[in-house]
Amino acid sequence: KLQSRQTGQAGLRFKQLLCGRPHWGAFGEIMNLIIESLKSRHEIIQILKDNTHEDIPILKAVFSENVFNKFFRGEISEDSFKIQRCVMGQMGFVPLAYGTITEKEKGTKISITIKRMKGINIFFSCWFGGLTLLMIVNFIVNTKYFFIPLGMLIYGFLINYIPYKTESRKAILKLQEIFK
Length: 180
What we know:
Layout: E1 3-6, E2 12-17, E3 23-24, E4 29-37, H1 41-50, E5 52-54, H2 58-63, E6 72-76, E7 80-85, E8 96-104, E9 107-115, H3 118-141, H4 147-178
Helix pairs in contact: 3-4
């Protein structure tokens, strides 16, 4: 299914390609969105640059002033970008937004893919795999400690899923806001 929504503002149309729900990639949930604007590609790139810090090393960011006066940090080129929300403390659950900017006859099309960082995906794959193996061994041996790894598995899912969904929603709302 293609869900679309008019925002009511002149020059912006937002479409979310979800096929009913976000789809799952190799290591986690991936969201795809398309934002269509009547603004030119150069205006869109300038809007992104105005709202994005260059991707700087963490130690330099800690000691520099006004690092958090912009909403995103990352890299922007002439036809694509890779950004993530600026947060205090470098939280690993902040998703990355990869985007391509395509000029159309009447405006610009911005295709955005939002997904988790690879390190988080690898860590939780090992976490879930190890706990699943431990649950299977405890079930076969028939010990009373079967529910400890099950609780850790549920906890790992919640600590992975809830912050990612919250941060993805914040990034999507901010992207919609800056392209109005």
